Amino acid sequence: MAQSDQVLDKLIQRHPLQRLKSPSRGFSALVHVAGLASFTNQFLLNTSYGWHFQYLTILGLTLTTLTFILGLSSDLLLSSPLFRAKTILTVISAPLSTLISLLYWSLSLLDRSLVVPPDPAFQLPLPTDLGFHLFPTLFLLIDILLLSPPWTISALPSLGLAGVIAFGYWWWIELCYSRNGFYPYPLFGMLDTTQRVGLFSLSAVLMSASTMLLRWGYGRVNGRERPGMVKG
Fold this sequence. Notes:
This protein is mainly alpha-helical. The protein has 9 helices and no strands. The chain has helices spanning 2-11, 27-40, 56-77, 80-111, 126-133, 135-147, 155-180, 186-190, 193-222. The longest helix is centred in the middle third of the chain and has 32 residues, at 80-111. It starts with a helix and ends in a 10-residue tail after the last helix.
């Protein structure tokens, strides 16, 4: 038994800066199970074109769910390839989730009608609201800070990635609007084209800044990688 554990340790080499063991069937699996239980409870039905994937919140939640499925799968199978795939996807899902939380709560404090239609069906109870717009970010933070190696993405590639996501989402909601006649968020209907360019450009910058902030936070919690730290 001890010999098999040594073999597994060699196959799954933890980065020196990674605080806790992952993949593992212990704490790491528990975090991913708890996260998936929270995320899957949030999906709603929608019969309009684009289904509920019109909403950036749902797109972000879907990416976070896929990230945690990969994480849990790597825990249960003790799979390095699945763990690496989870880490790569986290570079997208975590900054996007952080952006969603930042935009939603800041705009809600400014004027909730900008992001939530007046229809009573869209008025969410606080636990559900937190489940959509806060808990995914918190679970991803736990995964990043405790269960992941440091990211290597730099500012310029992160800005390019964020720009593709932001303007790709703009294209998608315009397609949905052409079929449905309404935008998923009231704010979009209040802006002209120039203002939308500004909004999505700002969103891309904020998402990129979130990536850099998460990298910085990882370094503060776990330390920074030095040359020669990782062998092989």
